[in-house]
Amino acid sequence: MLHELRKQGTAKPLALTSGEPAGIGPDIALMSWLRRSQATLPPFYIIGDAAALARRAKLLGLDVALAEVEVTQAVATFDQALPVVSAGVAAAADAGRPDPSSAPAAIAAIERAVADVQAGAAAALVTNPIAKSVLYAAGFKHPGHTEFLAELAAAGGPAPHPVMMLWSETLAVVPVTIHLPLRDAIAGLTTELVVKTCRITEAALRMRFGIARPRLAIAGLNPHAGEDGSLGAEDQTIIAPAVAALRASGIDVRGPLPADTMFHDAARKTYDCAICMYHDQALIPIKTLAFDDAVNVTLGLPFVRTSPDHGTAFDIAGTGRANPSSLIAALHLAARMTSGASAVT
Questions:
Q1: Fold: same for 1-161+302-345 and 171-289
Q2: With contact defined as beta carbons under 8 Å apart, do 213 and 285 qualify?
Q3: How far apart, in whole angstroms, are the C-alpha atoms of residue 146 and residue 117?
Q4: What is the dotted CATH code of the domain comprising 171-289?
Q5: H-type helices in the chain, by residue range?
Q6: Confidence of residue 234 (pLDDT cuts 50, 70, 90)
Q7: pTM as predicted
C-alpha cells in the first residue's frame, strides 16, 4: 500500500484546462465545482470559453454560476462562482461533436495554463482530456499532451524528459515506454531509459510526494522475468543492469520481478511505485484497481501537472453520465504535490 499524503491546501489557485470542448471535460469541471464543499476542493479556475461552458451547463441542467475573471481574482471568486479565464479562442463544438474550433481552443487553453504556472500565478496545472485524433487532423505535431507540455516547459531550452505516472491511493505505476506498438516498445527499451525513468520517479516521490526513501519495484519484460533467459534475454541484458546501477547509486529498487505476481494486496505493500516496461503492463492493473479515481501525473516537468485518467468520452458528453471522481482526485493531488505534502504512516 502507498504511503498516505496529508491533504493540504494551496495559496494559489490551480489552473484547469477545458480540454476537448466537445468531450466530457466541461461536464466534469462543472460537476466538480458543484461538489467543491462536499469534496473540499482547492480553489481552481478553468481556462476556456465561458459561453461554451454556459451552454454545456444548460444542456446538463446544472445550476452553475460562471464568472469571467483574471487569475488574481480566482481564489476570491471560487466559493460563489466557477472562475473562468479566457484563452482567447471561442469553442463552438456541440457535446460529442468536435468541429474545427476544437483543436485551437484546446491548444490555447494548454498554452495559457502553462504560462500561468510558469509565471507563478497558478500553483499547478490540471488538464482535462484532449482528443489526439482531433488535434492531429488540425496539424498538431506532437505525439500527445505530455510531449507538448514538455516543449512548452522548455521555453526555448532543452526539453525535459517527461515520465507518466498513474497514481491512486491503492497503487502507483510508471510505464517506461508509453504509446508505442508493443514491438516498438521492446525495441526501444534500453538500460539507460530504465535508469532515467527510475531516477525521475524516485526524485518526484521524495520531493513531491514526501516519501523519504521511495521503494521501487521493477517489472520484468518477459513472462516470469525471463526465467533466467529461457523466455527472453531482455530481463538479464537490459533490466538487471539498470537495477544494479540504481542500487549502486543508493536507490531502493528490486527487480526484475515477474509482473504477474506484483499487483496483489501483499505485494503492493512492499513498494511505493511499480516501474513497468510498457503501457498495458502498467495501466491494466491500476485501471482494474482504481478505474474511477486514478490520476495521471507527469513527472520530470518543472511544474506539477495532473490529469484525470480517462479520455474525452464523446459518447456520453452532455448526457450527465460522466463521473467527475478522477478529476476531483487530480485536483486534490495537484494541491497536495505543490503544498509540501509529506508522507504519514
A1: yes
A2: no
A3: 16
A4: 3.40.718.10
A5: 25-34, 50-60, 74-77, 102-118, 132-137, 145-154, 182-188, 191-207, 234, 240-248, 265-268, 279-289, 325-338
A6: very high
A7: 0.88
